[in-house]
């Protein structure tokens, strides 16, 4: 069983933990693992250079979550973190005072930056970093190229997504999201192959604009999803008209998409009409939206969407795989 998951950070990390848990139950290898091959194709648009370090938030959120090392309250970074180095950087006026790098997290960024300086690609560095834990999921960055998301706000100012997101809490109305250098970018090795050879392709309940949208925006990836023989199933990141975490509603508003579970499905589109979806999972709170989704040529499943723990995340993953068949 081969599963490819397009994923962003926090929501995607929890969903991937559920996919892994369900795979261990449904496709056990007899040693507590799974015979299923799970590949996460991870957004890198949030990545940036800061204090001479290459930061890769979504890759790190997924790695830490699957490793059991994530700060579940904060939603990013490592559990049991300290911020001594960040305090020193602030004292020297280096970096962003509004973007806290924990000491353990800095270890990851130093390792990644060191590997990149040694000539490794981001995908190779990710393989080395993730090899430290038995994640049970192969993480591949959507691209090895530095394609960073920048936000054009109403007065024309352009800033890195991370500044808009963490300094301004997405409070500055965004006019447009720009993927810098995306035209020259190529999918990382293995990305299109994972999508083409998958039995199921899942779109995690991540930010449809700056996470899933950014992955699909890398030249070649949208076409790979549209042409795979696998069923493509998306999970709504919106339940009952509001986003589960983060500020995805600010991103959706910026591109003129309503913050509703059916509007996002229509935004992704059915594969029959030029989009990427075969099926879409709606929360029970959004059962009334089923007809709109079906009318768009997308099979709708109404299931519990809240991921409160590994068990509910696993049940959601099971529902997503069931919707594929
Ligand atoms: N998010 C914040 O709101 N404030 C922070 O200070 C912050 C620091 C940070 C450091 C490393 C990292 O990997 C992520 C961090 N994040 C922080 C979260 C980050 O903005 C998000 O994980 C994604 O980039 C948006 O989905």
Description:
The chain is an alpha/beta fold and 325 residues long. The chain has 13 helices and 14 strands. It has helices at 10-26, 57-67, 84-91, 103-117, 122-130, 161-167, 191-197, 212-216, 221-227, 248-254, 261-268, 290-295, 310-324, and strands at 2-7, 37-42, 48-50, 53-55, 138-141, 149-153, 158-160, 174-179, 200-203, 231-235, 238-239, 242-243, 279-283, 299-303. The longest helix has 17 residues, at 10-26. The mean pLDDT is 97. Bound molecules: ligand FO1. Ligand FO1 binds next to α2 and α6.
Keywords:
alpha/beta; 7-stranded parallel beta sheet; binds ligand FO1; 325 residues
Give a list of the ligands.
ligand FO1
Strand content: 15-25%
In percent, how helical is the residue content?
25-40%
State the secondary-structure class.
alpha/beta
Structure annotation, total helices: 13
Layout of strands and helices, then pairs:
Layout: E1 2-7, H1 10-26, E2 37-42, E3 48-50, E4 53-55, H2 57-67, H3 84-91, H4 103-117, H5 122-130, E5 138-141, E6 149-153, E7 158-160, H6 161-167, E8 174-179, H7 191-197, E9 200-203, H8 212-216, H9 221-227, E10 231-235, E11 238-239, E12 242-243, H10 248-254, H11 261-268, E13 279-283, H12 290-295, E14 299-303, H13 310-324
Parallel strand pairs: 1-2, 1-9, 2-5, 9-10, 10-13, 13-14
Antiparallel strand pairs: 3-4, 6-7, 6-8, 11-12
């Amino acid at each position: 069983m081969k599963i490819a998951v397009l994923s962003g950070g926090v929501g995607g990390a929890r969903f991937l933990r559920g996919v892994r848990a369900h795979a261990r139950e449904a496709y056990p290898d007899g040693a507590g693992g799974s015979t299923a091959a799970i590949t996460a194709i991870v957004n890198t648009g949030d990545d940036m250079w800061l204090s001479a370090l290459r930061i890769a938030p979504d890759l790190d959120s997924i790695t830490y979550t699957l490793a059991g090392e994530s700060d579940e309250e904060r939603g990013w970074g490592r559990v049991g973190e300290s911020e001594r180095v960040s305090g020193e950087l602030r004292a020297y006026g280096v970096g962003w005072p509004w973007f806290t790098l924990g000491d353990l997290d800095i270890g990851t960024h130093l390792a990644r930056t060191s590997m990149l300086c040694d000539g490794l690609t981001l995908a190779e560095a990710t393989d080395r970093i993730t090899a430290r834990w038995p994640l049970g999921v192969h993480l591949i960055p959507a691209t090895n190229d530095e394609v960073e998301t920048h936000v054009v706000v109403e007065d024309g100012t352009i800033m890195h997504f991370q500044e808009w997101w963490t300094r301004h809490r997405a409070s500055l109305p965004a006019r447009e999201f720009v993927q810098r250098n995306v035209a020259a970018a190529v999918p990382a090795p293995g990305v299109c192959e994972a999508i083409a050879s998958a039995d199921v392709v899942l779109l995690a309940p991540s930010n449809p604009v700056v996470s899933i949208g950014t992955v699909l925006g890398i030249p070649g990836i949208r076409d790979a999803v549209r042409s795979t023989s696998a069923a493509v199933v998306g999970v709504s990141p919106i339940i009952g008209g509001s986003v589960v975490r983060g500020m995805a509603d600010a991103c959706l508003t910026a591109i003129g998409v309503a913050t509703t579970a059916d509007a996002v499905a229509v935004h992704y589109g059915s594969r029959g009409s030029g989009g990427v979806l075969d099926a879409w999972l709606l929360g029970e709170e959004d059962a009334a939206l089923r007809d709109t989704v079906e009318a768009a040529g997308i099979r709708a499943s109404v299931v519990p969407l809240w991921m409160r723990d590994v068990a509910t995340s696993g049940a959601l993953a099971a529902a997503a795989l069931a919707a594929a068949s």
